[in-house]
Amino acid sequence: MSSPGIDSAKVRELHDRELKKFVGTHPRSLALLERARAHMPNGVPMAWMVIDQEIPVFVSHGEGADFTDVDGHRYLDVNVSDMVMFCGYGNPEVAEAVALRAWKGTQFLLPGVEAVEVAEELASRYPVPFWQFTLSASQANTEAIRIARAATGREVGHFDEGLINLEDGRLVPVQRGLVKATAGKVRIAQFNDIEGLRRALEPRDVAIVLTEPALTNNVHLLLPQPGWHEALRAMTRETGTVLAIDETHTCVVGPGGATRRFRLDPDIVTIGKSIAGGVPLGAYGMIEPLAREIDVRREQGVTATGGTLFGNPLSMAAARAALTKVLTPAAYDRTGALGARLADGIETAIRKVGLPWTAQRFGPRSGHWHGPEPKTGEQALALRDQLLTRTQRLFLANRGVWEALPGAGPTVAVPAREADVDRYLDGYASFLGAVTA
Fold it and tell me: 2 falls in which pLDDT band (50, 70, 90)?
């Protein structure tokens, strides 16, 4: 949709002008992209890299809160690699831990002391005592859903079902490659819609409800309304449904993520992204009855989980350093204060140009909605303006700021400073001025 107060023709003109400027100043990235197309579809290692931006830059190196591309352009990174690099680039604590572990051996298919310490640290932060490890949050969600299906004996729920959208009242796959029957094994209840949740759970055949504590992907940011999480917990208990909270994008708000902030009581917590400082790692914690589902002493057999590189010493060493030396209470306090400064500046810039937009506030994360604060995911999706969002990303990139992925919102990383926040706000205010002039 087109945002209120914005001339879409003017936005298109600005987009094309900024894209031309971007192309003209990134010859080495463009040459590498063309070269890579000979051996990688789309010229990149993963399709997301071109889905989420019109032209990807090829990166040379990162340092602190910034990274530099092969054409020599340095960017303040408020995307932080979709939360993965919240600890910052080249963090010395993480780098030293990884280097030392690499010399000692990176894989044995046996446990090491680091895994014990990481599990203990996560258990101290989240209200679930038993932890297992994967290489990504997506894999952690897959395993969590399998355990829930095993524990409940119910079929509704697997991670393919996380790739289903609600369009015009129909359940449809987000992308191709999913089994056609997938849509029949999922129900979507809108975030903050208590009655919709009640209808979805009423048949008592749902193995698991998997949700973020606050929705963060594709909808900018959607905070829980009063009573939502209490109703969610009560209904899942009443219907014998496992409740899983995905903290992957929200763990940056504090030592126990949004689970601790909102005082939630889930059966499972899944997490990934930033907890190993950029080294691949996912994890999931669970209550004791669910932990029994993967106990090898079970007569019924063990639930299907695991992978050869899961829980490897390199990931564990990085996570131990990140969790105990970088992601400290003081770091969360400081990034939260910088996030508030960012939100204040965004709100001021919006008011100055008279747009009917709303600033977001969630710890180190901020951003805006193209309108009043939405209450449900459906309302949040209706506020998206994809052309405007793409144009903003290009505009800021041309001014040395790497904006968050579409529908996410900027995040202040641990090594960021007040000057970095002001750098973002200067570019943001200039962009609003350009689209409203």
Answer: low
By C-alpha distance, which of 405, 396, 388 is closest to 429?
396
Buried b (16+ CB within 10 A) or exposed e, 303-339: bebeeeebbbbbbbbbbbbbbebbbeeebbebbbebb
Q: How far apart are CA 17 and CA 112, in angstroms?
A: 54
Distance CA(271)–CA(260), nearest Å, equals: 14
Q: Right CATH number for 8-86+331-436 from 3.40.630.30, 3.30.565.10, 3.40.109.10, 3.90.1150.10?
A: 3.90.1150.10
> Which CA distances in Å does 357 have to 8, 203, 406, 424?
16, 40, 17, 18
Record the tokens describing residue 205, joined without a space.
């055949």
> Mean of the pLDDT values across residues 143-165?
73
DSSP 8-class letter at 269: E
Tell me the average pLDDT across 189-218: 92
For the chain, the domains span: 8-86+331-436, 92-326
In what helix (H) or strand (E) does residue 171 lie, and over which residues does it extend?
A: strand 170-173
The model's confidence at residue 380, banded by pLDDT at 50, 70 and 90, is confident
pLDDT above 50: residue 158: no
Average pLDDT of the segment spanning 87-97: 98
CA 61 remoteness from chain centre: 22
**Token duo for residue 75:** 């960017």
For residue 52, pLDDT beyond 90: no
Confidence band for 405, pLDDT divided at 50, 70 and 90:
confident
pLDDT at 178: 46
Burial classification of residue 15, based on how many CB atoms lie within 10 Å of its CB (0-12 exposed, 13-18 middle, 19 or more buried):
buried
In CATH, what is the architecture of 92-326?
3-Layer(aba) Sandwich (3.40)
Q: When comparing pLDDT for 327 and 157, which is higher?
A: 327
Rounded distance between C-alpha atoms, residue 101 and residue 95, angstroms: 10
Nearest CA among 330, 331, 333, 345 for reference residue 419: 345
